[in-house]
Fold each of these.
Amino acid sequence: MSQICPSDFKVDKERIAKAVREILAAVGENPDREGLRETPNRVARMYEELFSGMRQNPRSLLQTVFTEKYEEMVVLRDITFNSICEHHLMPFEGKAHIAYLPDGKVVGLSKLARASWMPMPCARRCRNGSPRNWPM
């Protein structure tokens, strides 16, 4: 399983903004141009949000269960998620599906959906594209 960042870890937005400014200059843009002036800061805030799942442990959401005599499969479909391709640092979106046999204990559906946004198969962290390679 991949390491989850410590909960006190903070994204270095200033460092990201400086790097984005350098990228803009490297591709021939003027980072001081009116339309680009705030772009490095916007990109830094975007990365902070997109990587927010790295500081959360999905198990913490799944601690609250309810005892329920229910023996059929619980299915939650079409959970929209977004992540970052680790090869190109490009954002992408997808849909996740979760199914489980409750065995006398059920988890709230909203908790399952939120867990899919964290460092599980559909996390807000870098992904190498293949679900087979995502940490569980």
Amino acid sequence: MDQPLTKADLLEALGSLKTELKAEIAATGSDLKAEIAATKTELKAEIAATASELKAEIAATRLELKAEIAATRSELKAEIAATGSELKAEIAATRSDMTDLIRQVETNLLTEFHRYAKGQQARMHGLENNESDFKLRLAVIEDRLLALESRRPPTAQ
């Protein structure tokens, strides 16, 4: 092959190369289409399997959550009942304490009122005694005045 290639040789080589490339492209395209179809089928199968697995997991999770919710609900009801009982006991204790405190305050008030009344009674008694003394003195003065006015001798009392 020492001769220079002619244009016809180059065109012929180009034509055969084109034919070979077209054949190769066609074969590669067919292979790729077959591969894509196979991959598509595999992916569909995997997606279906994954969907089934996820549905099963979702169902299992749903059951677990329902069970946990039921357990939590039971615990909360028990805690609420216990708290209610504790609150009732505390309210009863507070009511008892308040009743005792009110009774103590009432006793203290009554004691202080009694002390105040005793002092006021002593004062009133003293005023009544003073009034009685004043009335007695007034009666004596009136008798003396009457005796002076009527010129009678005073009577002994």
Amino acid sequence: MARLNRMIILTAAIAFAALRGAAAEEPALIEFKVLSPATALEMAQAALRNCQDSGYQVAVSVVDRFGTPQILLRDRFAGPHTPDTARRKAWTAISFRSDTLELAKLTTSDQPITNIRFVNDALMVGGGVPVEAAGSIVGGIGVSGAPGGDADDVCARAGIEAIADKIAF
């Protein structure tokens, strides 16, 4: 019995030491980067301008790294569905950490991950792109209203390119 008690105490001491060491290595607060409102607006305006230059009437949405909307711009003749569609594309891009043009291909009915199409608010249509800086997602952009997801994607990427020098770190 004494031997069993010593084993229990020794096991508990080892477990406590391991947990204490793990807690000491992990900081209590975590730092992350997000786009400033001015930078998010600049990106959205550049995406909108790119679509306008191509003759498209669109909506552009920028979300932060958590999917919360930061910016929404809608051209005067963009369809009434485009603001929500743009937001959902941006949300999908950051949620799944991939552009929605690629996700559209990966989630067709013959693919193993097709069921992620049924996640609330997910929209697997081209035009949503995560915004990355130094390998970390700092936001997402979604564009809706151009004639097809490929064209929406081009506009979204033009917006990201417009701020690329500002978010490089």
